[in-house]
Amino acid sequence: MSPPYTRRVLSPRRNAVRCVVIASLAVVAPMLGAAQQAQAAEKAIWGPVTLSDGRSAFPLYRELGVDTLQLILNWRDVAQVRPGDATDPADPAYAWPQEIATAIAEGDRHGVRIALRVYDTPGWANGGGPAMRTPDDPGDYADFLTAATRRYPAVRRWMIWTEPNRNDRFLPNNADGRDGPRAYARLLDRAYVALKAGNPRNIVIGGNTWTSGTVKPPDFLRFMRLPDGRTPRLDWFGHNPFPFRFPSLRGAPLAGGFRDISDLDTLSGEVRAAYGRRVPLWLSEYTIQSNIGSNIFATFVSRPDQARYLTAGYAIGDELGASVAGMGWLALLDEAPAPGAAHWGLLTYALERKPAFAAMARAPSERLRPAVGVARAVTRSSVRRGRLAVAVTPKASGAITVELRAGAVVRARVRATGTAGRRRTLRLRGAIRRGRYTLRVRSARAASVTRTIIVR
Predict the structure, then answer these.
(1) In 3-state terms, what secondary structure has residue 271?
(2) Which one, of 38, 124, 45, 33, lies nearest residue 377 by Cα?
(3) Cβ(322)–Cβ(27) under 8 Å?
(4) Residues 82-133: pLDDT tens digits?
(5) Distance between CA 275 and CA 273 in Å, rounded?
(6) CB 306 within 8 A of CB 360
(7) DSSP strands (E only) in 294-406
(8) Residues 264, 265, 270, 275, CA torsion sign
(9) Taking a C-beta distance cutoff of 8 angstroms, is the pair 450, 437 a contact?
(10) Beta strands 300-301; 289-290: pairing state
(11) Which of 46, 72, 81, 270 is the most exposed place for a label (fewest CB within 10 A)?
(12) Are 57 and 48 in contact (CB under 8 A)?
């Protein structure tokens, strides 16, 4: 089911907004002769395992081109009493949810990964405190993750807590203070060690901040330090970039430390500065409600504009290339009809498809990324004569665009129509100088492919 959030977004307006959708897309991918494609942003979603009519939701996820389904693993629910051996998934204290086992099996059949978010502390681990209070010993959380990765060895993506920069999601936390980020840093680092010991291929997603918060994302990142001053270990930095405006990277960052979907380039730079290296962003939750506000969000737009927000948001994720590991939509379904219910889904609760469903199906997907073959280096004369050959094999039929760029300037472009599974060779022609250029390939419903080309 969708995460049971009870936040209200601070929005500068509540009416529908109509703007132009971002069209430029880019994600790194393969060169000729490369045995393995480079990472592209995963298309992720929050949603149920079973639909409201009892059918499996996975055929819909496959139709949408979803790469990763995100689900909750609630520590407090699974371990209501202290286990005798907390690292053993067979300990009788544990009550593992059947939904996750079902999702892993269904995901395997439909080519959909499962990512788990693990949070909420049992009372026995924090002196009887509320679920959002961090455990007295971060090792208890790490032990649970050890058991969880043994229980679910097929899961590789692990999100450590949910929005710990909010005092209604994580304690201790105080306005603009260091206590919350520092407590979270200890929890994250212990979790990293446990998950990597379970399987070095596990991907540990830390941070998991949201647009606003008791401690704003830049401050939380700055204060997120271990007692010796080091940053806690992680693979990807998670963030929930709920929009305060129509998505676009062209504007200035929001004042006051807010980081919404339009500030992802800024946030990526801040994370890189904190860690001294590029750390991909995992954008777990992005959404905009349609039709009406709710008890959860004040912000809403029309159904057509919800689809436009989705398209523009996923385009940003693709445009930022290797800086974004994945982009997730919240959620597949609207909440069940009730006063104040959230209309954030791609479908209504009654399974009526909204325009956002088609927009999600068109959004760039890693699984549909085309195979691309191109030489690593070419001569100026070959480009002038139209001999820069790019072989593209799309996984979905539709338009193909190949561009040779110097920075943001397109120096050569060719367009064609491709057929799924059929290789097509396109040739670029242009009068260009010697130097380093970026080749960008876009095909229908696919994450873009970019490569560096040296022109001699």
Answers:
(1) helix
(2) 33
(3) yes
(4) 999 999 999 999 999 999 999 999 999 999 999 999 999 999 999 999 999 9
(5) 6
(6) no
(7) 300-301, 324-330, 371-374, 377-378, 388-393, 398-406
(8) positive
(9) no
(10) parallel
(11) 81
(12) yes
| CA 23/CA 324 separation, integer angstroms | 17
Per-residue pLDDT, averaged over 265-281, amounts to 97
Q: Which residues of 366-396 are buried (b: 16+ CB within 10 A; e: fewer)?
A: bbbbbbbbbbeebeeebbeeeebebebbbbb
- Which tokens sit at 114? 């499962």
- Six-digit token string for 292: 């009406």
- Please give the torsion angle defined by the CA atoms of residues 247, 248, 254 and 257, in that order, rounded to the nearest 10 degrees: 80
**Cβ count within 10 A of residue 195:** 25
Tokens of 34: 């490369």
Degrees (nearest 5) of the Cα angle 276, 281, 283?
160
Dihedral sign, Cα of residue 10, residue 12, residue 18, residue 22: negative
* Residue 15 to residues 25, 72, 198, 289, 441, Cα–Cα distance (Å): 28, 32, 48, 11, 36
How would you class 56 by CB atoms within 10 Å of its CB: exposed for 0-12, middle for 13-18, buried for 19 or more?
middle
Query: Measured between alpha carbons, how far is residue 193 from residues 167, 198, 221, 234 in Å?
Result: 26, 9, 20, 10
Of residues 351 and 36, the one with the higher pLDDT is: 351
Mean pLDDT of 312-316: 96
